[in-house]
Amino acid sequence: MLEIKVYPDSILRRKAKDVEKIDDRIVKLLDEMAETMYHFNGIGLAAEQVGILEKLIVIDLRREGKNELIELINPVIIDSEGTYEEHEEGCLSVPGYYDTVKDRKKWIKVKYLDRNENEKILETDEFLSVVIQHEIDHLNGKLFIDRLSPTRKMVFKKEWKKLQKEKEKAQ
Ligand code: NI
After folding, report:
1. Which among 36, 28, 32 has a CA at the least distance from the CA of 4?
2. Is 135 a catalytic site residue?
């Protein structure tokens, strides 16, 4: 199990580097990231969130209770179309807070490597599209709270303080 870095940890603000060689270390890391994501009931996790600055993402939407793990190495969005006005998001690195994010793309085309070093292309206009954009943001040092409107950012600051106080009390 890996430890999840929580906002405002500065590592979440750094940029991840391309994975140059998919070796045993990377494969093990992908396994541990998936294990960590399942443990915390997340639907996506970027390496950045476990303090590793490499372009690795695991996603499992567990639709209809079925596991469908997607691993993306060095993902790049090569095309996109349409925009959601609003989309509700949350994040394992910002636990307990959910809000509506503006301007996520609807349809995306992503290029990435799988763990066997095969180049893959994925196209989606479903929920998965937004999850991939959220996770790629992590690799660029960006969090979903950065994409809130100015008013919602103020709400976040207040709510976050409240959440931290509650956490302290519970300890
Ligand atoms: Ni996240």
Report:
1. 36
2. yes
Question: What is the structure's pLDDT at 102?
Answer: 86
Rounded to two decimals, what is the model's pTM? 0.96
Full set of structural domains in the chain with CATH: 10-170 (3.90.45.10)
Give φ, ψ of 90 to 5 degrees: -140, 180
**Helix H or strand E encompassing 170:** helix 150-170
Active-site entry in 135, 159, 166, 168: 135
Question: What distance in Å separates the CA atoms of residue 149 and residue 156, rounded to the nearest whole number?
Answer: 10
pLDDT tens digit sequence for 45-85? 999 999 999 999 999 999 888 999 999 999 999 999 999 98
CA of 134 to the centre of ligand 1 (A): 6
Interval between CA 170 and ligand 1 midpoint (Å): 24
Provide DSSP, 38-53. Answer: HHTT-SEEEGGGGT--
